[in-house]
Structures
1.
Amino acid sequence: MVNQFLQKWLPLLTPVAVLIGVLGVGVLEVFVFLVPWIFACMSFANSITIHPKEIIEITRFPLSFALVLIGLHVLMPILAFSIGWLVFPNDLLTRTGLLLAFSIPTGIVSLMWISIYGGNRTLALCVILVNTLLAPILIPVTLTVFLGTEIELNTSGMLWGIFWMVVAPSVAALIIHAFKPRWVEPIHTIGAPLTKVGLLAVICLNSSVAAPYFRALDLHLTVIIITVLFLAITGYFLGLVLGSVGQVNEAEKMSMMLLCGMRNIGVGAAIAVVYFPPIATLPVIVGTLFQQILAAYFGKWRVKRIARSIHA
């Protein structure tokens, strides 16, 4: 019941978490050190329902799988970097945060929306699993390729940080699923609502770090919000375009749209707060304001469009 409530109201609870973080800046900042630990627990709980053998299912959707990864880690970072240069030519840290926001893996919560709107769950599981395991390599490499000569990056620290926050707990969950399947259901029952609470906690704590910039509510912040919103919307349309290029069925196209549109904001926020100055966290935190709302909207929009085409 608690999980269903959180799942239903997550699109509205995420902006509330940002607001609480901004208002509680003096109190919450001291707990920011908990962010990596919270996220490690979230990674474990989110991965517990995935069986390692599902990675073999990639062979059923090789083109869709490849196109999603290209969209997530080639096309969107290039677009984010280009627009960052165009809109914030003299603001390296904001450009860094913008690139980070669109270099992180696809959101695990996308699986929830894909299930709701009839997407291909198997394809989604394959992308999420591989994308998660490759995150320690993909994120530092992407940032180094685009920003290596402009900003000093702690790539080794970032790699190990992502490994312990994302990969290690996810692998532990996969092993438990493979060898102790009876444990999966009770862990999932407890973990499902806690992951959503954990996400809200991470957003809240990271918002407290960026609070001075949110409180300013100036033209700079407004431009960041508009830019992140534009890029987030572009991600959904990119998924549809890639689905059309691959000539996939509607279920796969729905999954591709949501996988390309959503990002693992929790891991992005955790990386931002640990390895970058507060202003660089702004684009990542801003993404939490409308990610769930956009997912719900695009899912409904796509279902209605498919229904109209069937009855046309």
2.
Amino acid sequence: MFSNYSGWMGAGMWIFWIIFPFIIVVLLKILASMGRPSQSEESPMEILKSRYARGEIDDEEFQHRRHELEK
């Protein structure tokens, strides 16, 4: 009777040690993402300024798009 019970306890411990690290990693990723703003929180003007600062668009395109956003 007790040997069957201890067999389930052993299997339960294996399952626990397989799932526990996964849960810890998921929780750490959730906590890490809470501190930084997502890209959807940036305004279109902030995105435009970031693209200009990274050199993705030139001055002429920046001015044109800025003018369109300010309409």
3.
Amino acid sequence: MKTTLEEISPVKKRLHVEIESKEVDKRLNQAYGKIRKRAKIPGFRPGKVPRKILESYFGEQVIDDVTRELMTETFPKAIDEANTFPLGQPVIEKGILKQGQDFSYSAIIEVRPQFQVEDYLGLELEKEILAVTEEDVQKRLEEIREANGKMDSIQEERPVRDGDFVVVDYEGFEGGLPMEGVKSANLLVKMGRNDFHPEFDKALIGLGKGAETEVSIDFGEDFYDKKLAGKTVNFKMRVIDIKELVLPELNDEFARNLGADLKDLDGLKDEVRKALISQEEERIDRELKGRLLEKISRETEVELPETMVEGEIDFSVERFRGNLERGGSSLEKAGISEEDLRKEFRTDAEKRVREMLILDRIAEQDKISIGEDDLEEGFEKLAKRMGQDLETIKKYYEVRGQVDFLRQEMLKEKTLNYLIEHAKISEVEKGALT
């Protein structure tokens, strides 16, 4: 067997494989020998059918079987000989297999590009200072208070006003006909928040319980719900109830009722402050690494393998689909086509693949790796964060074949930390880089 590798582009190669006629003849003879033993052809005794007759009856099938057999056996060996690793499924260009002739085929494969990353150490970067104020703590306390509020129906006879929570039934019509999937019962709407559309909220203001109304809304072409984008929809609405959020007092008793071994309001404030500091540390670190990667990416030319980009898009689409389904919806119900979704996700997918390739290359250039001790430490951190037993976490990843994925994620983080350690970082005020 002879193997040659031809470069089509930095990420695309053509692998040529040639198999000697001697091996071709051997495989064909073996195939016809097996058929001769079991072939039942009128006028011939079993095992005595001439080769020419067998070829006339079974030639096409034998050629297909032997071709497939030879390619299946030789392709992995050819990959090893060429010292390359294909991404995704190869595109096969097969030749014609004939007795007494060499057989050749080609496989077009995608591979990771070979490139150099330069000037990635000592980069000048800006980083926000860590600042959590009393105002931040108070704002989070109010959020916790609202989350623990009680929704009560308003007893007095009065119309809907700004700030109320309105329970409403609605249905959308286009051209006088009801629209599929544009209907809801007992929808809770916070007045003034404009979660759906400002005109929708506006139409409810001033109505009392049981009141009905209609409103026509023109939706822009860029509206987030594709079923409504670019359409004029007439909504028929009925107010079922008007509610208000009754908030608990922010005191020691409120803090104790939250649990988590809290004894008083000061203890709750301390926990909130710690949580905010941790979140800010993570945000600042994440954004700093993002700016670092963006800086390196701008200065690095790298061609992206389409297989990797499509894989990232597949992941994003499936995650989006799963989120919809967990919420009782679907792409069809939301009026979103998978084709449009794939186009929307492409830019971010290309960015992630580019950054992944760059980080992998830097790790290779500077000999950064994840050893077994590092992996064990990673499992321990996961177990602690998830509140699970270490062996349970390890088994979870092993059974699902995700250990290599975890190793890759850890290598990415280790490489990023290495780059940050060697960067020249200056601090700026909070919000200056937003």
